[in-house]
Sequence to fold (150 residues):
Amino acid sequence: MPQPAKKMPGAAQQFTAFTPYEPAPSEEYMNPTQIAHFRQILEDWRSELMAEVDRTVQHMQMENVNYSDPNDRASLETDMGLELRARDRERKLIRKITQALDRIKTGEYGYCESCGVEIGLRRLEARPTATLCIDCKTLEEKREKQMAQE
Fold:
């Protein structure tokens, strides 16, 4: 059974700490125990991000002050802009997490959507929203780099 996730200090996008999964030597890939492990990681991460969104909304409502000094107003607007960009990145990440949870429901989680091979437990623990194996991801990045150079 997976260990409960513990919040790591740092940025809201920082992944939550967890006990790495140690499969038995003859254990089948993406068995119910592994699925439960990754579901817990994804749900905890999504909850953490959603809590950060709620804190931002509350903070922005409390900071709704009209400063008379233009410098104070500009500083506040800059801070709000940075915070909104961070929340937008988190919103996109929440969408990816939800898609990963949907793949768990359909039995597609843990397998490369390009070639169908196993993504691997360590890669999924490093990036639980991964949809490509390391080989397909490397190939995709090379293609993107080539397209950028043209």
